[in-house]
UniProtKB/TrEMBL annotation:
Keyword line: Cell membrane, Membrane, Transmembrane, Transmembrane helix, Transport
Record keyword Membrane present: yes
Organism: Teichococcus oryzae
Annotated protein name in UniProt: ABC transporter permease
PROSITE patterns named among the record's database cross-references: ABC_TM1 (PS50928)
Length: 356
């Protein structure tokens, strides 16, 4: 019987065997990193809730409550316990997805967030589509025609997107496109006459009405969303175009671009097929981060347009001293950023073999 040790092992088999511990180690580090980040996020939101000059007991009982009622409510909320005990209870509740009860609505905070978040997702998604559709081509063109009129226009246009406050753009947009020209619908997500005719499936109005074939309601909802989404997309376009231009300038300075031109490839093919392909993963990461900023940064835009979304809910919670809602929203925003950063890292590993 042949000696088992004498059986040859292929190089590819040895390579896979050697790579397996490295992959396991990478996965362990990734899980530990996510766990530490989420724990730090929970600690941050807890201490923010304790440091803000908002008294949850006074918000519940009012300023005229007796001392006995105040102390009883404090015991009921667990605020009479030592700080470390409060933190452990807080972590335990968060792990069970219990963010407490919102004072504004009397409902669980997580239920409120589930109710308002689809409106923000829809607004941010349309905004990122606009920002990406404009930002990537403008960034590529600015890099391809560096120091020309096209480049200067894109840079100035992007500077305006960075500089102009969203609330000012929203007010000016309503005055011009709604009140004066009548090109778009007014504040709100949909006209009151239509809101009872929609059967919610995903709570995304454009998607639900399109699937149901309710095109009159679809266009009404589109008329409401296009202006606030364009304002959000304008800011995203500025960020995406600037980063795309920077990535492309680095690639266009590489030797392979000169070699491609020497071989007779057109400038357009060299830029879009060869150079842009090498920055596509980086651009995807930028778009993911821009999307995260739109999800949590639509507060002023939603307030100006009376958009019943996450940002407006958070604003009302801050103004009303509803600490459960404020802390819950802050935690959700942090989880969104962690999730989208993780998605970006995974996309890097999938599309760029050098990072594996």
């Amino acid at each position: 019987m042949a000696d088992v040790a004498a059986i040859p092992v292929s190089r590819s088999g040895r390579g896979r065997a050697a790579a397996l511990p490295g992959r396991v180690s990478t996965m362990v580090r990734l899980v530990v990193s996510i766990a530490v980040t989420l724990f730090g996020l929970m600690a941050l939101t807890f201490f923010i809730g304790r440091l803000l000059p908002l008294d949850p007991v006074a918000a519940i009982l009012g300023d005229n409550a007796s001392q006995e009622a105040y102390e009883a409510m404090q015991r009921q909320l667990g605020l009479d316990q030592p700080l470390h005990i409060q933190f452990l209870r807080y972590v335990y509740d968060i792990v069970r997805l219990d963010f407490g009860t919102a004072l504004m609505t009397g409902k669980p905070v997580l239920e409120d967030i589930r109710r308002v978040f689809p409106a923000t997702i829809e607004l941010a998604t349309v905004g990122i589509v606009i920002g990406t559709g404009l930002g990537i081509p403008l960034g590529v063109l600015a890099a391809a025609y560096r120091d020309t009129a096209i480049d200067y226009f894109v840079r100035i246009f992007g500077l305006l997107g960075y500089s102009m406050p969203n609330f000012w753009l929203g007010l000016m947009g309503l005055v011009l496109f709604y009140a004066t020209l009548g090109w778009v619908e007014g504040p709100g997500r949909i006209d009151t006459a239509y809101q009872w005719d929609i059967e919610p499936v995903t709570d995304l109005l454009l998607l639900d009405t399109a699937m149901a074939g309710q095109w009159d309601i679809f266009w009404n909802a589109f008329g409401h969303i296009i202006l606030p989404a364009s304002i959000l997309g304008f800011g995203a376009m500025a960020y995406i175009s600037r980063m795309t231009r920077s990535f492309m300038l680095e690639q266009l300075a590489q030797e392979y671009v000169i070699a491609a031109r020497v071989k007779g490839l057109s400038w357009g093919r060299t830029v879009w097929v060869h150079a842009f392909r090498n920055v596509a993963v980086q651009v995807v990461t930028v778009v993911a981060l821009a999307y995260a900023f739109l999800l949590e940064g639509a507060v002023l835009t939603e307030t100006v347009f009376a958009w019943p979304g996450f940002g407006r809910y958070l604003t009302n919670a801050l103004l009303g001293g509803d600490m459960n809602a404020v802390v819950g929203c802050t935690l959700v925003v942090g989880i969104i950023f962690v999730g989208l950063n993780l998605l970006s890292d995974l996309l890097y590993r999938i599309f760029d073999p050098r990072t594996r």
